[in-house]
Design a protein that fits this description.
The chain has 8 helices and 5 strands; from the N terminus they run H-E-E-E-E-E-H-H-H-H-H-H-H. The radius of gyration is 18 Å and the shape is globular. It has helices spanning 21-33, 117-126, 131-142, 162-167, 176-193, 198-207, 209-214, 222-241, and strands spanning 40-43, 49-52, 65-70, 76-79, 89-92. The protein folds into 2 domains: 21-92, no CATH class; 117-241, Orthogonal Bundle (Lysozyme). It starts with 20 loop residues before the first helix and ends with a helix.
């Protein structure tokens, strides 16, 4: 789950950095494709900023964290080692249901119809959200793994960031019932904001409401477009499964 709130990260003196072969290759690829790729910027509630420019022909195996920063000469740099004593931005390349190059067949991948059935039905009813949509989002976010933790700190079934969980009153993000309740309440707020438009609500769940407003619809990010399309498939399948 994503949030558009954020805090300023204070810049400090830059220390020399070591570059790995992976970071050099990544930097070359990113800089070479920057003019042709949509770069998505996410500011999390705890102040972390991340970018992703995953393209539709990107390898599905890419799944790691890199850091974007400027070196002592002001040159834009990338590294898979966290910079010390300087501001940086996290570039995340892991997303269960939004990798454009994913080889998963979303029309046939097994569903999780029995997991947390009572909790989902009860909480979805309280907040007037289709339980099949809740299942689709949980499937897309964590594949129903209550201990799921993303590389940037999102936690639990519906992948709540710690600050977001706190704002929603979720004391234990890895507690399935609390996580579902927080995630469903946020999803309900998005559905209300977009007058029941599931496509826009799920796009905002992935990319943030700010991006949806900025582009007056689904943001043109390969990751978000893939996420929305797969949520639609999963939602339909969960509804058909009853």
């Amino acid at each position: 789950m994503r949030s558009s709130k954020g805090t300023q990260i204070t810049a400090m003196r830059v220390q020399p950095m070591k570059y790995s072969l992976t970071s050099i290759i990544l930097a070359a690829c990113l800089l070479g494709n920057l003019a042709h790729a949509e770069v998505r910027r996410i500011v999390h509630p705890d102040g972390r900023v991340e970018y992703t420019n995953i393209q539709s022909n990107s390898p599905a195996a890419v799944s790691t964290t890199y850091y974007k920063y400027r070196n002592a000469n002001g040159v834009l740099s990338f590294s898979d080692e966290k910079p010390l004593n300087t501001k940086y931005e996290v570039m995340r390349f892991d997303c269960y249901a939004c990798k454009p190059g994913s080889r998963i067949n979303w029309e046939t991948t097994p569903l999780f119809t029995d997991r947390y059935q009572q909790e989902i039905e009860r909480i979805a009813a309280i907040h007037s959200v289709d339980p099949a949509l809740v299942r689709a989002v949980i499937h897309a976010e964590s594949a129903f793994n209550p201990q799921a933790r993303s590389r940037v700190g999102a936690q639990g079934l519906m992948q709540l960031m710690p600050a977001t969980a706190e704002e929603l009153g979720v004391a234990s993000p890895f507690n399935p019932e609390q996580n579902i309740d927080g995630g469903v309440r946020y999803l309900a707020m998005l559905l209300q904001r977009y007058e029941g438009d599931i496509t826009l609500a799920t796009a905002a769940y992935n990319a943030g409401p700010g991006a949806v407003e900025r582009y007056s619809g689904i943001p043109p990010f390969a990751e978000t477009k893939a996420y929305v399309r797969r949520i639609e498939i999963l939602h339909r399948r969960y509804r058909q499964a009853g």
